[in-house]
Amino acid sequence: MLNKHPKGLIAASFANLGERFGFYTMMAILVLFLQAKFGLDGKTAGVIYATFYCMIYLLALAGGIIADKTRKFKTTISVGIIMMAVGYLVLALPTPTPVNNYTLMLVISCIGLFIIAFGNGLFKGNLQALVGQMYDTPQYSAMRDSGFSLFYMFINVGAIFAPFAAIGVRSWWLGTFGYYYDAELPALCHGKLDGNLSEQAAANFQMLSDKASSAPIADYHQFAGDYLNVFTTGFHYAFGIAIVAMLVSLFIFLANKNKFPDPAQKSSKETAGELNGMSVDEVRQRLLALFAVFGVVIFFWFSFHQNGLTLTFFAKEYTNLHVGSHAITAEIFQSLNPFFVVFLTPLIMAVFAWQRKRGHEPSTPKKIAIGMGIAALAYVVMSVCSLVAGLPNHEVVRELGSSPVKVTPWLLFVTYFILTVAELYISPLGISFVSRVSPPKYQGIMQGCWLGATAAGNQLLFIGALLYESIPIWLTWTIFVIACCISMFTMLFMLKWLERVAK
Q: What is the number of structural domains in the chain?
């Protein structure tokens, strides 16, 4: 399979694997960390999460412009990795909880997130552009879609194990102090310290506290502060794992630097020749097609990336995390998506190969449209099951401190499975489409714009948090069904034009 692809593909994939391991270690716990550290409600944590996720991708546009202007893709990527390590260091340094200076510590945390986002912007899109340039030769051009699917699969190997690493460090630190993990307890601890728990929530806090402590509790007020401090310190140390992952990624990238194409080595004459081979109208049509797709996928990413926000809230508050004698954690569901990416990618590629052999393989734009329809199906499952289960509104959960009705974790398992199938029809193939259609001079910028469209969708994530806390749960998922359907039908409407431009 791999002998049909350029040698640099595996090196680029492993460099990205290390970076993704660190990134998803952080993303698995970020929103839970913000709530536990600062006592934020879902709406406020959602705004920070959405803004950070937006900046992750929006700054990729800046990274693409820098690389395209300087033609120093490899240097830009290396600097990006180093910046991410610095950002993770800011988050990894432990500070007391409850925080003494709320505003200052929240600002410092946000600065760390911005540094990570900027470093990721220098790294992510430009590495994708390098991979795309590997397939610009006739020898490999036919394998572009398959190459990006493999690239996408390999980098998700790191994401599979990241949540387990974060969970392991946090649970180890809790165990050191004789405490056990409970997803609902940090919010109740903040309520206890602030003195705003209802009678029912206070009783629930005391019951969960007794279960979470291996020793009898003499002072529940002191326990609340101690538990929060130990809980969040474990998260700080988990962020430190990401620093190590960045160093591994940097080593792999630098050790294999010579295997990657270098746009800087192209003479100005060659670059001009590439552009002169396209008419002004062709360049304009290509750019219009790309921006049309960018606009459409905003709605998909707004829905898909709820996996780290409202779906994580759902795992914490509405999912039965006690299966028999075993307990699972809310973060563990974050490993499902990358696991399914690795597991399903060979199967999806086999389906595409079977279709290609018979001359019936869908075009890349059609695959993207199909993926959006599949994503809608995932949220149909969530909506129907939430309605049938009779899940209460979030305000009831907030008042009681826990949901009186909980669903099986298999619901999220199935949802993540369907969402991952949708992702494999959209994300790697979308990157492939951009690398195929982009005029040569704008490779880095257009990859940055693809990530910029993802940024716009991510900035809208906070709407999901607002809906989650304001309307019935089943109706929240229905909004995402509508968003995915809008994306699908718009892509189908533009399909013939996009297929013509991509030839």
A: 1
